[in-house]
């Protein structure tokens, strides 16, 4: 009668399986006589991954990939264990830059794990490692805390607009930015990616290209459309494919303009500096108003959320369309919109 213990043969077989997985060799490779692919080092492979991902992903992970190279640059991808990845994430979390809105470095730890998962995802896809040898997927990300952002009150919004319109070296540009974000609830990336060819003046629509390579047409008020067109005529060039939002010199703005705006407002309004108010708070403000007044389905469409993870299955049956979003824009701005449902 068997005592349940594994015999020498079973132990040897399991050892062989582990060794083959570590070397990236499958049983089929042995049958076919195929030579195993050489597993590269992090120094050798990170540049290849960086060239294969979208620019936004590259910007988000570059700092963390640099840290990986500093620690493990000469190591092969199949050498670090799940425990070592967790240790690196904890080290990144502990040494994260402390800001007034920091939350214990949780975001830094999460991004480090995500950056490594990106590397290993490509390594598996390239056939350098089997999925079973991917250590990054066995390291859980830190649980995300609830966001501290919330909708601004009408009074707070008025205070912000008053400061922006009366201070700074280009209040006309800054007011245009704030109105664009307040009317469309777009992200900074969507505003920075706007081009003259993305303006549909007849139907009062702007084409937003945001994170995840999503593209959508977003209604705006006739007044905002007039300001956007005038801005291009005064500051833009002849190429409709170039960036729309520019300084008086004609130079395209960058994300640093947003930093300048909120640092300036924070010097005049203490609560802005204390709570670290940013442009994303305007997105919260607008979407909260739309949801409270026109319902969840319209707010979801207004935000550009279309993924399955954004809501339950009920959203499939109560989906709002472009005309609903146009009606919401009309209600929000107090101006009629050509696409709003009558």
UniProtKB/TrEMBL annotation:
Superkingdom of this entry's organism? Bacteria
- Tell me which Pfam families the record gives: Phage_integrase
Entry-linked InterPro entries:
DNA_brk_join_enz, Integrase-like_cat_sf, Integrase_catalytic, Integrase_recombinase_N, Tyrosine_recombinase_XerCD
Query: Which PROSITE patterns does this entry report, sorted A to Z?
Result: TYR_RECOMBINASE
Q: Where is the Tyr recombinase domain?
A: 147-330
Keyword terms of this UniProt record: DNA recombination, DNA-binding
* Membership in a protein family: Belongs to the 'phage' integrase family.
Its protein name is Tyr recombinase domain-containing protein
Species name for this entry? Answer: Dactylosporangium darangshiense
Q: Which classification does the entry list for the species? A: Bacteria, Bacillati, Actinomycetota, Actinomycetes, Micromonosporales
